[in-house]
Amino acid sequence: MNMIEAVKTVFSNYATFSGRARRSEYWWFFLFNMIVSALLALLFGNGHGMGMGGGGMINSLWSLAVLLPSLAVGARRLHDIDRAGWWLLIGFIPLIGWLILIYWFATKGTLGTNRFGPDPLAA
C-alpha cells in the first residue's frame, strides 16, 4: 500500500472504527497528516505573525478535519493486533502512553482472522 492508497482508504472509512488496518495504512496516513500540517504551518504560519497570516484558523480546521479519521485508523490499527480501540486512551499518560502506542502501531498484526475481522493482508 502506498501513501495515496492509504489516504484514500482512511478518508473512505472516515469514521469507521470497526475492522482492521494494516501498518502501512496507519503510518502512510500519519506521514501524510504530518506533511500537510507542516506545509500549512509553513504557508500560513501558526497564528503568531509567521507566514501569510490566518494560519491558526487554517491549521485548526485541518486538525479538526482529520481528528475522526485519525482516531478511526488508530482504533483499526489496534484491532489488527487484537486490542480494543479504547487502548488509544493510554496516550493520555505522559510519555509512557505514547511510547506504548508507538510500539503497538509498529507491531505486526495477528495472522488470520481475529475478533475484529479478517486479516487485511490476506485480501
UniProtKB/TrEMBL annotation:
Keywords: Membrane, Transmembrane, Transmembrane helix. InterPro entries: DUF805. The keyword Lipid biosynthesis does not apply. This is DUF805 domain-containing protein. It comes from Fuscovulum ytuae. The chain crosses the membrane at residues 26-44, 56-74, 86-106. The keyword Kinase does not apply.
